[in-house]
Specification:
about 160 residues; about 0% helix; mainly beta; single chain
């Protein structure tokens, strides 16, 4: 079975989604050099923010039992922010852990690289632990990054 590979480039305009997953049991890259990417909708009440998330390097969950993805596939995701604005109204997980009973033993590998623009995140988790495997996450902020507003930061966490 071939590994799924995908890329998305946001150079201008507005992208709104309730959830964004980069590298969901495959290899994904999201490049943002301009525009506005909002994860979650501003009309959600605060208690609904948990349903809005950005996951970078996200392994399968126990709910994906009927998938045909090989067990040794490690989710690999990269988000490159070089300009524009990223707003995450819920949680951002860079390197998700695995709670899967089918694809056990493989966490996700995620990279968030900000060299410009503005990022605002409600929760930022880097290297989430799971009951079966922990994820590995890397965050790099460099260059002309204008602003990073992270309300809650957790390294190697279990929710």
């Amino acid at each position: 079975m071939a590994v799924a590979v995908g890329a998305y480039d946001l150079e201008a305009g507005v992208l709104e989604a309730s959830r964004t997953q980069v590298g969901l049991s495959g290899q994904g890259t999201f490049n943002q050099s301009g525009g506005t990417h909002t994860v979650g909708y501003s009309y959600y009440p605060p208690s609904a923010y948990d349903i809005a998330f950005l996951r970078i390097g996200n392994q399968l969950s126990e709910y994906d039992q009927n998938s045909n993805i090989p067990e040794n596939l490690k989710a690999y995701g990269i988000y490159n922010l070089s300009g524009g604005q990223l707003n995450v109204l819920g949680s951002t997980v860079v390197g998700s852990g695995s709670d899967s009973y089918v694809h056990s033993g493989y966490g996700g590998l995620g990279f968030f690289n900000q060299s410009g623009g503005t990022s605002t995140m409600h929760n930022l988790v880097v290297g989430e632990s799971g009951t079966k495997a922990s994820g590995e996450g890397h965050v790099t902020v460099s260059g002309t990054a204008e602003e990073c507003i992270w309300y809650y930061l957790c390294w190697c966490c279990k929710w």
